[in-house]
Here is the input.
Amino acid sequence: MSRLQVVPPKPILQLSDLKRYFNVSDSLIGGASGSLRAVDGVTLDIKRGETLGLVGESGCGKSTLGRVIARLMPATGGEVEFEGRDILGLDRKGLLALRRDIQSVFQDPCASLNPRMTAFSIIEEPLVIHRQGSREERRARVNELFELVGLRPEYSDRYPHEFSGGQRQRIGIARALALNPKLLILDEPVSALDVSIQAQIINLLEDLQKRLGLTYLFISHDLSVVRHIADRVAVMYLGQIVELADNEDFYARPMHPYSMALLSALPVPDPHVARNRIILKGDLPSPANLPKGCRFQSRCQHVSEKCRQAPEPPLEEVAPGHKVRCWNLADIHRKQ
Here is the structure.
C-alpha cells in the first residue's frame, strides 16, 4: 500500500536573483559614476498565508525590496513571480490588475494619507480607480472596512489630522484591504507609533490575516516585533539576504555573525539572565563601493583571509529550512 505524499503548497511569491541598482556620481569632486546596489541578488519565497519578517539596519535595502515587489519601483535585474506569473514584465493593464492582489502599508501614517481627503475618500479611492461598485456599494464597503480595522464608520468624514497616529495607520490598512488583496507589504507599519499602540496594530494585523487569509511581507528593524508576528525571518545586509530561517529556529540558534550581533542587543526581561552583548566594530561599507569578498568582513569578529579574498559566500542551506551566507560558519560555532 503506497503512502500518500504531502505536496507543499507553491509559494505565492518567488524572487530570483532580484536586483535594484541606482546610478550615482561624485560630480562635486570629479569622480566617476557608478552603481549603488540597494538590492543585490535576492532570492527567496513567501508561502501563501505566512508572514515573512524582513529585518536589518536602516539602509540595508529592505524598503527598496518591498517597493520593487509592489512594482512601485522598477527592478534592475532578476525575476519576481506572483502566483506563478512574472510581474516585472507586466504592461499598464496587467499592472493595474496586479494592484488588486498586492498592496502596501507604509511606515508613516501621517505622510501616506492625503491631508486634503477625508478618511472615506482615502479608503474609497482604490474602489473608484478600479471601478468597483456603485456609489452606494462603495459607501457600504468603506463602512465595512472601517469596522474591520476597529474604527467607527461615523468618523469616515473626518480628515487625517483629526485622528491619532494609531487610527491613521488603521485607515492605511483599511485602504490596503479595499480591493481584497492576497499579499500585503508592511513597511515598518508600527515603528512610528507608541509602544502600546504598536501592540494593538500587531494584534489587528494577526486577526486580519486569520480572517482574510492574507500573506504578509513584514519589513522592520525591530526584532522584538518580528519575533511576535513572523513565521520565518530573513536578515538583510547591504542588499543581500545573509540568513533565512523559521522564527523559532532563528531566535534560538542564529548562525550568521550579523544575526548574532543583532539578537544580542535585544533586551532581556529577567535581570538575572546575563546576555553577551556583541558590539559591531569597524565601518559599514558603502553600497556604492562594496568590498571584495564578504560584505560583512569589516565588522565581523570572526573574519579570515578567505572572507577578504574569496568571492562572496553563497546563501546555503545548513539545516532544514535554515540558510546562511558565511564562509566560516563551522569554525564560528565550533568555538562557541
Notes: The two ends are 47 Å apart (CA to CA). The chain is about 30% helix and 20% strand. The first strand starts at residue 13 and ends at 25.
